[in-house]
Amino acid sequence: xxxxxxxxxxxxxxxxxxxxxxxxxxxxxxxxxxxxxxxxxxxxxxxxxxxxxxxxxxxxxxxxxxxxxxxxxxxxxxxxxxxxxxxxxxxxxxxxxxxxxxxxxxxxxxxxxxxxxxxxxxxxxxxxxxxxxxxxxxxxxxxxxxxxxxxxxxxxxxxxxxxxxxxxxxxxxxxxxxxxxxxxxxxxxxxxxxxxxxxxxxxxxxxxxxxxxxxxxxxxxxxxxxxxxxxxxxxxxxxxxxxxxxxxxxxxxxxxxxxxxxxxxxxxxxxxxxxxxxxxxxxxxxxxxxxxxxxxxxxxxxxxxxxxxxxxxxxxxxxxxxxxxxxxxxxxxxxxxxxxxxxxxxxxxxxxxxxxxxxxxxxxxxxxxxxxxxxxxxxxxxxxxxxxxxxxxxxxxxxxxxxxxxxxxxxxxxxxxxxxxxxxxxxxxxxxxxxxxxxxxxxxxxxxxxxxxxxxxxxxxxxxxxxxxxxxxxxxxxxxxxxxxxxxxxxxxxxxxxxxxxxxxxxxxxxxxxxxxxxxxxxxxxxxxxxxxxxxxxxxxxxxxxxxxxxxxxxxxxxxxxxxxxxxxxxxxxxxxxxxxxxxxxxxxxxxxxxxxxxxxxxxxxxxxxxxxxxxxxxxxxxxxxxxxxxxxxxxxxxxxxxxxxxxxxxxxxxxxxxxxxxxxxxxxxxxxxxxxxxxxxxxxxxxxxxxxxxxxxxxxxxxxxxxxxxxxxxxxxxxxxxxxxxxxxxxxxxxxxxxxxxxxxxxxxxxxxxxxxxxxxxxxxxxx
Length: 769
Prior knowledge:
alpha/beta, eight-stranded mixed sheet, 25 strands, globular
């Protein structure tokens, strides 16, 4: 089959994780990626992740000190379609900045992936998922035993930054098909965090940050993990009212079911009741084995999962069935097994990976790319690179709707189709439906089906995340959509994929956290930890957006649509890519522990006089500087040395205000940042200049802050806040746009096939996880 990005030339001037991984995702779909390395090679060549992130690429060795090599790099950029750039690399190269690159090649999409934004609040251009998590408030939002910051075992924020950056770059290529012009696209670590955590980005002025001292299982007694009689842990994924009632029945809590019918579920088992009811849940689960409970909950149709170790995930029959465990024969390292590409496209699938390129030499042949044609006259401004495209979102709960919101952020007109009663997850899930227009439609009725057919016939993309077979029954399956619009692109999101033994099962983000080993890895020697961020859901949404953009670019070039599919299971492998890679002599991947503060004395959180500081000394000089602050000559190495250094630094930081300590560390060249609560972020001057937060109406006479611009486009920046729609808020407007007669619209409303609603009221709600 053909490759969607065949003929697309990419120059990679990036190191670390986010930039190389973004380029890898483009290489997977056929782009010709040339990685530029220094003569002694990328400093990350020794990392296991390099073997995956460099797959499918060519590599050339160029020396920034050589004028000849500078000219060769300029020639590469002049003939490229995309340049993926991180500041740590581009600062070495005169003329590799965005302005000069576009001056030589106006058709270039210059994708900048800085570790933070324009500048980072820590020393140097150091890319770090841990520092990013601390500075963006996600460490302090993680549920824990003591309410302090929790250091993430995984660099999930960087992985999601990579997926979102690739989506934005391909969206810019789609726009270039029409305008002929490139632009600078910036997706920094802040933007990656925004994409990963839209719920945590919401700030209500004057309200305190949520209490996180609720234990490593999180807030909800029906959406957490419990230890069973055999010592195994089981995750109960009763997120919505339907599943909560099923769970109470399976557990034999007839009294709670009765009270829930009278007072409502929140009054009985909501997060506010956690302390009162959780001991009862714990006792119930401790009375039977995990297998017994699994059998009972599965028979009732309530999602549950046994917690597993991550080392076994690539061997799971479901992961193998959906092709997420791939092997390559590396000339230097031998057999390497790694996660595959989780995006399935029917007409232009991802290609089988080839191994990472060997260390290039001065004799390595450098590609000769002809210059791209002239860009032509300056195009008219656009409100986002996908402006003019219509997306129909029939997704529910989280990953499906959020994919629609990401496309709305890129400028698409997104219509959220939901049942007249509204999506059951709206109360908590409104950040995931922002920027869409609401059409409340009963797809089980003939009238609803007719209206949906008109809407789908006007669409470029349809997104759904039903269980297998449901979309076909509701008239939203690809075969029906293609009849209505032959060049349509559809995207299906499932929990486990469309093949394998679990293909028909329902699942949530946390089910995959449990099964894939994410929870046990974060918990380490202590209890398993439920990640507060819905990383599998949000990352799956970014991958769905990327798959849609790749398919739309292929359609723009060929006129042909296709069907796409992604799964939470596939995403859960990608989100552990460096940790899951199997290669001879690799170091053991990191595991966490109870209220994990970090892996070593020079790479961890310390409590300051008025908060917390996250330090991450990588160089020998930075580690020596920390030893001096600790009043010891002992450097990190042995366990005794590490303990001595930790004790000394603990005393030092306890006597310092966090901001002053960070100023001292910056002067010493030690990367460090204060752990910030999310409530502070809207007041950050740099964030304001980048429109990181937008005020949106709550419907209660006040405003709240939600995620603002999740990427910066130099020429096609979308304007305006993304506001969640009320149930059926735009029903009449959309039906009129479809050209439906007034009498037909009135009949559909009066007979209940369509609901007309008001703007959404965003009431405060306790955290659900």
